[in-house]
Amino acid sequence: MGIVGVFVLLGLAVLLSDNRKAINLRTVGGAFAIQVAIGAFILYFPPGKELLQGLSFGVAKVIGYGNEGIQFLFGDLARFKLGFIFAINVLPVIVFFSSLIAVLYYIGVMSVVINFIGGGLQKLLGTSRSESLSATANIFVGQTEAPLVVRPFIKSMTKSELFAVMVGGLASIAGSVLAGYAGLGIKIEYLVAASFMAAPGGLLMAKIIKPETEIPKVTLDELDDSEDEKPVNVLDAAAAGASSGMMLALNVGAM
Hints:
Elements: H1 2-16, H2 25-44, H3 46-74, H4 86-89, H5 91-106, H6 109-125, H7 129-140, H8 159-171, H9 175-183, H10 188-209, H11 234-254
Helix pairs in contact: 2-3, 2-10, 3-5, 3-10, 5-9, 5-11, 6-7, 7-8, 7-10, 8-10
Keywords: Cell membrane, Membrane, Transmembrane, Transmembrane helix
Membrane topology: Multi-pass membrane protein
Family: Belongs to the concentrative nucleoside transporter (CNT) (TC 2.A.41) family.
């Protein structure tokens, strides 16, 4: 039934496409193949399972550090002595993860990873560099933060590129929200697998519904890091990330 569901969704996307003749089979077929390959590799093959378990262990370890801070701050309220309290056991983890990701951006770790994966997607799928980088950023950050990776070039994007950026955000969850879901008891390995599969999956659906009919104006060499509004130091980055995470946590709590 799962396979049937996949083809039903693809069929609906084709029906909703605003220009079926312009659908690029290389992009669509490649994105589908990459998504299937990622899922098969990390869920069914022993080396992939070990890699996924390693990533999941790392994420769980980081979440554990965050939980220790929460317990220090809230005491018995965070130790389940009064039961599971969503506002105490989940929302602060979102703030912590958001701050951590902001620090990783500041020291350059996230930029290296995103450029590496995004560059690979661009070469394999024939998508533009900007939409590939945005799709990759959505693996780690949310729909609000991911477009900031290509913010200086949004005004020059084609309609198809803008649509791909939006769909990529809707197809994925932020790393901070992933930590929140993990706090609810969802297996981390499935959350990590879904996050990585969402990048090509978002491009797949976007390029079926809104295929590229224009010539992208942003070239590979133009996609350098913007210096605008960069944190002045690590503490500034951590504070800005925590502030952003607080807003996200409030939104999650309100919903």
